[in-house]
């Protein structure tokens, strides 16, 4: 606010004589200056307000498996209980500051009779460690979903719900399926649909009552259409598919990725092969003529397991951010940005009577910025995994999708 002060009466009287003359001269000078300015300086452009922007960040990890060696490692004789927090603790920084963190739970939670491969069943405390690491959504449609029958499938859902973990891909009964068929995530002003499917269940039929999402072209098309009806701005399809121990996607993976994109998915994320496989971002033309990005990753590898074969002893965490801009013309623009990965390696440290497992972010531990001591052998194995994985990821198998707008002729194969 501009402040004014009051002067003396004599000053006001003098001003009453001088001021009109000054104002007259000033007005004349201003008019001349205005004329000069109007000839030499163009009028300033109208400044449009900056578009409002919202963001939602994601981190997606691979398969969480619990083999017999991991069960033995987590067992505490003193309390006769299982504790997995030591395993997941080193991975916590990977998810710090990320809005949505997703992983695949490739085991069941039967409450008793815990076993590893081939019929996975893990203690509920596994979920506590998963949640404590920062993971907040788990997919459960995979080939081990019915390893413990109807009881194991249903109880897994109940435990995850009770512990506050988002879950999708399996359903307790038909009513549960109808209500939660499309998982809608509402956060940071976004509506994101998550859909999860598996290629099979190791030839074990789905028990009567519960529902397991299996890869079916008609079902996937219906679900994506339903997601759009529910006003989902972004649709993410999470597949459990592919040939185990391959470095690149097989024909079935490519076919189903193509199908998801043709039906309108924005992002397709895969797992199951136990190896990392390539990922890529590409663009296609939307119905309104605007270019819009798409993202595919064929396999994230293992987030944690007791598998020690080359290429299976780790995985990657894929990061991306969805950005929404409200343009000045009223349209909404959606982008997929900040796409990158970080590799993890599972360290099985030899102790006197057992192994201790750790999920280690490779960058951090190769830089020796950690409190877990690695042997020279372990460090060499970690380096080998990083080298192997980076070579695989450079292949960019998914780049072939980008050649043509997906809704027209998505050349995936």
Element layout with pairings:
Elements: H1 9-40, E1 52-64, H2 68-74, E2 75-76, E3 81-82, H3 85-88, E4 100-105, H4 125-133, E5 137-139, H5 149-162, E6 166-168, E7 170-171, H6 174-180, E8 183-187, E9 190-198, E10 211-212, H7 217-229, E11 234-240, H8 251-263, E12 267-271, E13 276-285, E14 291-300, E15 302-304, E16 314-326, E17 332-350, E18 355-361, H9 362-366, H10 376-393, H11 406-409
Parallel strand pairs: 1-4, 1-15, 4-5, 5-6, 9-11, 11-12, 12-14
Antiparallel strand pairs: 1-16, 2-3, 7-10, 8-9, 13-14, 16-17, 17-18
Task: Tell me the helix content.
Answer: 25-40%
Mean pLDDT: 86
Oligomer: single chain
**Hey, roughly how much beta strand do the residues contain?**
25-35%
Number of DSSP helical runs: 11
Summing up helix and strand content along with how strands pair, one would put the structural category as alpha/beta
Uncertain regions: pLDDT < 50 for 5+ in a row? 1-48, 402-413
- The N- and C-terminal alpha carbons lie at a distance of 68 Å
Backbone CA Rg:
30 Å
Indicate the overall shape.
Answer: globular
The largest sheet is:
8 strands, mixed
Your description of this structure?
α7 packs parallel to α8. The chain is globular. It starts with 8 loop residues before the first helix and ends with a helix. The protein has 413 residues and is of the alpha/beta class. It has helices at 9-40, 68-74, 85-88, 125-133, 149-162, 174-180, 217-229, 251-263, 362-366, 376-393, 406-409, and strands spanning 52-64, 75-76, 81-82, 100-105, 137-139, 166-168, 170-171, 183-187, 190-198, 211-212, 234-240, 267-271, 276-285, 291-300, 302-304, 314-326, 332-350, 355-361. The protein has eleven helices and 18 strands. Strands 1, 4, 5, 6, 15, 16, 17 and 18 form an eight-stranded mixed sheet that branches. It has a six-stranded mixed sheet with strand order 8-9-11-12-14-13.
